[in-house]
UniProtKB/TrEMBL annotation:
All residue ranges annotated as the N-acetyltransferase domain in the record: 17-163
Phylogenetic placement of the source organism: Bacteria, Bacillati, Actinomycetota, Actinomycetes, Kitasatosporales
A GO molecular function held by the record: acyltransferase activity, transferring groups other than amino-acyl groups
PROSITE patterns: GNAT
Stated name of the protein: GNAT family N-acetyltransferase
Length: 164
């Protein structure tokens, strides 16, 4: 039972499959909560295709892929917003592998990647219905802060200083 976490191109087969799983879950959760239905398949395909993850590629970003016993299991993305600030995004684990410590490892590795990019703090946003994510970030030392973007779906914003 072991985790490995490595940087990977956002367009790799594993990263692409995990992006699809991530986006499907968060989109369906939103639509089920607000409209009582799952995401329209055509809309889902448009949104998945429109968000390539290019901002998570070097030199100003990185996408980490977690593998559990060799199988692609999750992701965390980091993108440098300015000389001091990195954004944590696309934190996701396949549902069957949650509760095994992978999310905390992913976030820790993302923080390391952000420091390597020169960041001294990490920011992120999430939604109210993603209660597991909010609990994870609080447990890992992130504090809720004022809005830092205009994402229409964001409802909670967090920050954490990154020790050198």
């Amino acid at each position: 039972m072991s985790w490995t976490i490595t940087p990977e191109s956002p367009d790799s087969p594993a990263a692409t499959a995990l992006w699809r799983a991530y986006y499907t879950e968060v989109s369906d959760r939103w639509y089920l909560l607000h409209e009582g239905r799952r995401t329209d398949p055509a809309e889902l395909e448009r949104e998945i295709d429109a968000r390539t993850g290019a901002e998570l590629a070097p030199p100003k970003g990185t996408l980490l892929v977690a593998r559990y016993e060799g199988e692609a299991a999750g992701t965390a993305g980091v993108r440098l917003l300015d000389a001091d600030t990195a954004e944590l995004t696309r934190v996701f684990l396949l549902p069957a592998l949650r509760g095994r410590g992978g999310a905390a490892l992913l976030v820790s590795e993302a923080e390391h990647a952000a420091r390597e990019l020169g960041a001294t703090r990490m920011i992120l946003d999430t939604r109210s219905d993603l209660t597991e994510a909010r609990a994870l970030y609080a447990r890992l030392g992130y504090t809720e802060t004022a809005r830092h973007n205009d994402d229409v779906y964001a409802e909670h914003w967090f920050t954490k200083p990154l020790a050198r």
